[in-house]
Here is the input.
Amino acid sequence: MPFITTGDIRIEPCHDKTLPYDGFRIVLLGTTGSGKSSFIEALAGANNSLNISGGSLESVTQEIQMYKIVNMSVQRTHDYIENVYIIDTPGFIDNTASAFEVIQKIEQWQMEVEFGAAVSQYLYFHRITDKRVSGSEKKVIQMLQSTAPGISTKCLTIVTSMWDNIHGSTALKRAEDNLSELREVVWKNHIESPSRVVKFTNTNNSATEILTGLSHNNIVGYLYHPYTDIHDRNPDDAFVPFLFQDLLDRIAQARGEHQTMNQERISLISRPNPNPDRELKSATTSAFKTAEERLLRYVNHLATFKSVPRGFDLDPKSITYQCLVDITSAYQNYILAIESHPKTSKVLPSTHPSRDSRQDTSDLDESLNAAKKDFAEAYNRLCLFGPPPPGFKPFPISTSQRFKLGVHRTLDRMNRFAKRR
Ligand SMILES: Nc1nc2c(ncn2[C@@H]2O[C@H](COP(=O)(O)OP(=O)(O)OP(=O)(O)O)[C@@H](O)[C@H]2O)c(=O)[nH]1
Ligand SMILES: [Mg+2]
Here is the structure.
């Protein structure tokens, strides 16, 4: 028997990055919510909950986490036994993390762990109760099926989850039909045999059986690094264009959200009583900041692509510049909205204002100071980008505005730093 179990299976999180040279490593992949962490929970057993699946307080897996499967090993030869490790990964099609980030995290983990981390087996998870493979999941599958990730057919098992959640013959029939489609169409050419699409029933036994049924061959694989030279790749590979398109889609979405949230902020602060609902104001600001943080992350990732994949007719630098302009303008418009409010300290009449008005003025001043700081940061980021790409005008800001908004100090420091180099 290649897989040996020597007692009750337990799961131990590996807290450091030291890996023995010879481990049998199983990486779990799939869209968010497909059941990867639940599979590990099932292995750990009901009495040893790890609190890592979506039902617990921790909503979804954000980072790569490796676990040792205690009391399970792989017998390579009669006197050579390997420990088994299972690696949980963040899901694809997540609201915030792009496919690029998920792949990059796996890559970084593979490079960081001591002795490297060649992967022996990949388990791809799919919820069998989903009506069909969605369009966005199909793209993830195409990306994984392209030659770039280097997942050999011998290293891949498709795990279908949620079987324990099927009630009634109609639902069961639909699930069986879905299973056939996965076996005979979706994964047909990428698995060794139809039996490599397996059922997970959310129990310890089911998870253990799936693992012990894996091929214990010596083939190992690495997911490709997403930003190695694109020209070195097979031009028909779906891997790079998929990551690129996913980033473009996310940038468009985050830009839209950022713009909407800024308009919302402006309309809240422009009311005669600018602080009617502090909770709403704080939630809107937080959504605006989150959209900005995501936008900046995505354009940074776009910049790591050495060249534009085949089939795309666009300039990533222009996209990045446009996003930086959008962010800077958003703060500029917000500042203008605050400054033109009748209750700002500048505009407030000199007669004795009421207590509420004084409070409004102090809140507006606070918002203004925060917005000025954010504007200075956004504007400096734009300056650090360098000259605008062809077709763009320099950002409209006068010297007096620059001084008024406090961006001169940081720029002076930047200039001095540039001269010293
Ligand atoms: N009953 C049942 N629930 C499941 C199964 N698989 C997943 N779930 C539920 O679906 C939700 C998401 O499951 P997770 O295991 O956290 O999904 P994941 O693939 O780890 O998701 P990410 O960490 O976001 O990538 C949780 O509420 C689970 O309890 C299953 O086979 N049966
Ligand atoms: Mg998870």
Summary: Strands lie at 3-13, 23-30, 65-77, 80-88, 121-127, 156-161, 197-199. The chain has eleven helices and seven strands. Residues 30, 32-38, 53-55, 60-61, 90-91, 125, 161-162, 164-165, 200, 202 surround guanosine-5'-triphosphate (ligand 1) (CB under 6 Å). The first strand starts at residue 3 and ends at 13.
